[in-house]
Amino acid sequence: MENNLIFCDIGNTSYHFLDGRKSYKVLAEGFDPSSVQEEVYYISVNASVDKKLSRLSNWHDMRSCIDWDGYYETMGVDRIMACEAIEEGLVIDAGSAITVDLVSEGRFEGGFIYPGLSVMRESYVNISPRLDYSLNFELDLDKMPKNSRDAISYGVLRTLYSEVTRHNKMIYLTGGDATKLAKIFPEAVVDEQLLFKGMKKMMEKRC
Question: 167 partner at 20 to 30 Å CA-CA among 61, 103, 114, 135?
Answer without folding.
Answer: 135
